[in-house]
Design goal:
Layout lengths: L16 E5 H17 L3 E2 L9 H9 L5 E3 L2 H7 L5 E4 L6 H13 L1 E6 L2 H13 L4 E6 L13 H10 L5 E7 L11 H24 L6 E4 L5 H4 L7 E2 L9 H6 L9 E12 L2 E4 L14 E5 L8 E6 L4 E5 L11 E5 L3 H4 L5 E6 L2 E7 L8
Parallel strand pairs: 1-16, 2-9, 3-4, 4-5, 5-6, 6-7, 7-8, 8-9
Antiparallel strand pairs: 1-10, 10-11, 10-15, 11-14, 12-15, 13-14, 16-17
Length: 371
């Protein structure tokens, strides 16, 4: 079904359809790769925003050294074409450890821990299989989610796990996610530098404990343009910038990336002159942490004063100003979701659009990979 749509006009897609402007995505991808390269950082983009192996290959071709995944199941999908994979979340439980062992047979995976219990279990699983897995420690640098406290707790964990069999402790990571929305740019920059300095102190401590530190990993899309300037960091995990979500542009003040994603939706009702209802609600896009926008019709006629007011399960309700009231039932419009990470998992296919023509249809292969 998808193959038959290749080469057809965008307007012929049934709705709702998840789409990406390929030219914009490619420009964003180049911008991010060039940004990392110019600052001497490795790029290990997180794939949770797209969940598509073909896009990961585009990132690798642009210079990425590997990818970051959220879960073992997500990494299993990408291991078919990527050798260097960081699983940034903690792997806990016998079923996941067994799958991680099999994943290690396929690629050079890196596991993350923040407690001795996790490391000991991973060590046992890997050494029993005659394997060795790279491991990094997650440090809490202010996010107050996962991560061990820097200082004595971090030192004790390093000492406890550095000589465990079946693992090779090779670095650390931290996430400055609590600073993404700091409105003052200079305050944001200095705050990020201070948190990265904590990672630097932890790195120095590891080296004093005779651990060779190869990886200091950090940086999300909402912060990478500052984190990449911090000397302590060796690699950046930012991946979502390739889509240029409104959340990053508005809430995080991320510069030099443009909005690439959109939902093609259909006007299904016009209850009154000032209102239109689309066939794309919460089952199509997530309104958190940023509401969608409706900038134009499918053929790029501007909707200057159309505002997305609310989303129910199946519908998006728009309020229309005088310049947008020309919409009719059956018209198709472009809706820009606020945040790809929460929207991509709702779809089976991402359509690649170039010059308003369907160029490709990528299965979202890692959709639903939650374990």
């Amino acid at each position: 079904m998808n193959a038959a749509l290749i080469g057809r006009p965008l307007s012929e897609l049934d709705t709702p359809a998840y789409c990406v402007d390929l030219a914009v995505m490619e420009a964003n991808l180049r911008q991010m790769a060039d940004w990392m390269r110019s600052r001497g950082k490795h790029w290990r983009p997180h794939v949770k925003c797209h969940k598509i192996p073909e896009i990961a290959q585009l990132q690798l071709a642009a210079g990425a050294i590997g990818v970051t995944c959220a879960k073992v199941s997500e990494a299993e999908v990408f291991a078919a074409g990527v050798n260097d994979i960081l699983i940034a979340h903690l792997v806990v439980g016998a079923p996941k450890l067994a799958r991680l062992v099999e994943l290690r047979r396929r690629c050079d995976v890196i596991a993350t821990v923040d407690h001795y219990v996790q490391a000991e279990a991973l060590s046992s699983a890997m050494s029993s299989a005659g394997l060795t897995c790279r491991m990094i420690i997650e440090v809490n640098i202010g996010m107050d989610r996962t991560g061990i406290r820097p200082g004595a707790d971090f030192r004790d964990l390093v000492r406890g796990i550095r000589d465990l069999p079946g693992i090779r402790l090779c670095g650390l990571m931290g996430y400055e996610g609590h600073l993404l929305r700091v409105p003052d740019i200079e305050v944001k920059r200095s705050s990020i530098c201070n948190t990265m300095a904590i990672l630097g102190e932890c790195r120095d401590l590891m080296e004093r404990e005779s651990v060779e530190v190869e990886i200091v990993s950090a940086g999300g899309t909402g912060s990478y343009q500052y984190t990449a300037d911090c000397p302590e960091v060796t690699e950046i995990q930012a991946g979502g910038g390739i889509f240029g979500d409104p959340f990053y542009q508005t809430a995080c003040s991320t510069r030099e990336i443009e909005r690439a994603l959109f939902i093609l939706a259909t006007v299904v009702s016009r209850p009154k002159l000032e209102r239109a209802v689309l066939d794309s609600g919460r089952k199509t896009m997530n309104p958190e942490p940023s509401m969608p926008t409706v900038p134009m019709t499918a053929n790029q006629r501007p909707l200057h004063d159309a505002v997305a007011q609310s989303l129910s399960a199946e519908h998006l309700t728009m309020e229309l100003g005088p310049q947008s009231q020309f919409l009719h039932i059956g018209d198709k419009v472009r809706v820009v979701p606020g945040y790809a990470d929460f929207t991509t998992p709702l779809h089976d296919v991402l359509y690649g659009i170039r010059n308003d023509v369907v160029e490709t249809a990528w299965p979202i292969a890692a959709r639903g990979k939650l374990q």
